[in-house]
Write a structure and sequence with these properties.
The structure is a single chain. The strands form 4 sheets. The chain has a 5-stranded mixed beta sheet, sandwiched between helices. Helix 8 runs antiparallel to helix 9 and helix 14 runs antiparallel to helix 15. The protein has 2 domains: 162 residues, Nitrogenase molybdenum iron protein domain (Rossmann fold); 170 residues, Nitrogenase molybdenum iron protein domain (Rossmann fold). The protein has 380 residues and is α/β, with parallel strands linked by helices. It has 15 helices and 13 strands.
């Protein structure tokens, strides 16, 4: 009789576990508040979710999307919420992707759904997401594609890191926090971001000297050719925000190469290159999680040997700088802002250490460890 009762207890307990959902895999912590969520996204639209999102499609993971913010808010558990994403991060930020996959192997198994005009709407629908999160510029450029997603009953939430304005960064962080039911953590992250920005703006307000001329270039193609610089977009906006005179402003709209003669004629006081890990370009500027100072300087120095550059003020005064290309258009662009401000006004920002603040950001928010070299001045 006792044996019969014991066996019956085991059967009932097992059925209870199965039907109650106690045996689960790869599910995020339940954040269901039991109430609908209505939020205003960065396009000003009201979007309604039935509950905090546990199934999310990401767009523009490499820059300006919700990827880094999601992990800053939810730690390694964020991977359990992502049911589909683009390949921008794995294609164009290879060392960053490698670092995250080493820490969170499940990332490598997430279905890919494309991005923008290449978004596979059928795949998105089949994954039954609670929401799709997309940058405003991507939504506007391919609005017909995302409307098909919305017409299928899937909410689309728009964020905006691309405009490089602190207020839209804060709002984007807060919106993502609301989407996943982590509003307290989002407030903490937004406050950290604002404090880092205030380190710069509070000092810039006191500077009234002539603005130094600044040239900034993506170092992907190497020193053999002038590659993209930026007008009022992305890095160009950051230069202007840091009280530099961007020599590409008025000549380049969003991005594109400058005429070499024009550059020499403008004779910039400060030159900043952006680097990453672009293995298809052997001469590209190397920066990021797996870089060393020796390697980064070795790949930066040849840029100064371009024809005619020996006459440029920035070269003659050793004001050649490098910053990771992926630090713009996202929650960690405070590092780029601090670095650019310090590059333009070294005396006013001599006590500010952007690289140390990037390390602090990793320690307080990100699920991967800081490593490598993300910024430097040639020769220091």
């Amino acid at each position: 009789m006792k044996k019969y009762i014991y066996i019956t207890f085991l059967l009932v307990t097992g059925l209870c576990l199965v039907f109650s959902g106690c045996i689960t895999q790869d599910e995020p912590e339940d954040t269901d508040t039991g109430a609908e969520i209505t939020l205003t996204d960065l396009s000003g639209r009201q979007v309604m979710l039935h509950e905090p999102a546990n199934r999310i499609i990401l767009q523009d993971s490499g820059a300006g999307g919700a990827f880094y913010t999601l992990f800053a808010l939810d730690g390694k558990d964020a991977v359990k919420r992502i049911v589909g994403m683009d390949t921008e991060l794995s294609d164009h930020r290879k060392w960053i992707w490698q670092k995250y996959v080493e820490a969170i192997p499940e990332l490598d198994s997430i279905p890919t759904v494309g991005n923008g005009e290449d978004l596979n709407v059928e795949s998105v629908i089949a994954l039954k997401p609670d929401v799709l999160i997309v940058p405003e510029f991507r939504y506007n450029n391919t609005i017909d594609v995302y409307r098909k997603v919305e017409e299928a009953g899937i909410p689309v939430v728009i964020i905006d890191f691309h405009s490089e304005r602190p207020e839209t960064h804060r709002q984007s962080i807060e919106v993502i926090g609301k989407v996943i039911g982590r509003e307290d953590k989002a407030a903490e992250l937004a406050n950290f971001y604002q404090e880092q920005i205030d380190e710069v703006t509070s000092r810039l307000e006191k500077i009234d000297t002539e603005k130094p001329a600044v040239y900034i270039e993506c170092g992907m193609k190497g020193p053999s050719e002038l590659y993209n610089t930026y007008g009022t977009f992305m890095w160009g906006a950051l230069v202007e925000n840091c009280r530099g005179e961007n020599i590409a402003n008025g000549v380049i709209d969003e991005w594109g190469p400058l005429n070499p003669e024009y550059l020499l004629d403008k004779n910039p006081d400060v030159i900043i290159f952006t680097g990453s890990y672009w293995p298809a370009y052997e001469e590209s500027l190397r920066l990021g999680y797996y870089s060393t100072k020796e390697e980064s300087e070795k790949t930066l120095d040849p840029f100064t040997e371009r024809a005619g550059w020996e006459t440029i003020n920035a070269v003659k005064s050793d004001r050649i700088y490098a910053i990771h290309h992926g630090l713009a258009r996202d929650i960690w662009d405070f590092v780029a802002i601090q670095f650019i401000a310090k590059s333009i006004y070294p005396e006013e920002f001599k006590d500010l250490d952007p690289e140390a603040n990037l390390k602090k950001f990793h320690e307080e928010f990100l699920p991967v460890e800081y490593s490598g070299v993300w910024s430097l001045q040639l020769g220091e």
